[in-house]
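Reply to dn_fold:

You asked what the input looked like. This is it:
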Amino acid sequence: MNDKTNPQAGEWHGAKLDFKESMSYGDYLGLNQILTAQHPLSPNHNEMLFIVQHQTSELWIKLMLHELQAVRRHIRDDNLPPAFKMLARVARIMDQLVHAWDVLATMTPPEYTAIRPFLASSSGFQSFQYRELEFILGNKNRALLAVHEKFPDAHALLERELHAPSLYDEAVMLLARKGLPIAAARLQRDWTEPTSADDSVKAAWLEVYRDTERHWALYELAEKLVDMETAFRFWRFRHVSTVERIIGFKTGTGGTAGVSYLRKMLDVVLFPELFALRTEL
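and this is what came back:
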């Protein structure tokens, strides 16, 4: 038999078959660790869906954080072109997460009820990565650090992020570096507080939008931020819709009010001036 088509020869149509001494696809991706990380606690068939949905969401959030941390550095360094590409990528990741809820929505109320007792008090509310995402986008809340005291590394990471300028804070400081008048109080504010609207920031963005040719890079940055926040809002809305579909208005496993709590989160505006200015254009 021709060795080129003989699996015993270690190749198949040119593809390498023997990985005893070299790195394989599974080695590179750590698939053994990933694919053995699902440990259903209930006897119910549908728990695997619940676990995989949330694990994959955490992986996507990890990628978003990787991108947003780089975006913040690029804005700080006045290096906007790479930041634009990364912000566009984050918006598309959020789109991916929106559609992930379509899969979880195939779980019916009786199916979720069968696994809920096994979740105990565990909840997505306790996701330290999601909290980091909220913090880097400016929605900060010191009180929520207490949720993460069980894990010192995560707590320390969030403590650092709480005290760091958010991505939007860096964008506002960029406006000032480009000569747009920003109030000193806004530039020296307490970074641990959530973003709040500021008239000088709104006026600066208005100038950008009214003279886009002069401020094209800042204009593009603003629109990328709006795209990203819009995608984030869709993600939040799809979350609350899916939860309402599956559990109605029951209290969440983490102790929140469930759907009513999630609906309040829909009112959070991350980049307030970028949305407010549209009324005046």
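The beta strands are 11-12, 15-16.
Hope that clears it up.
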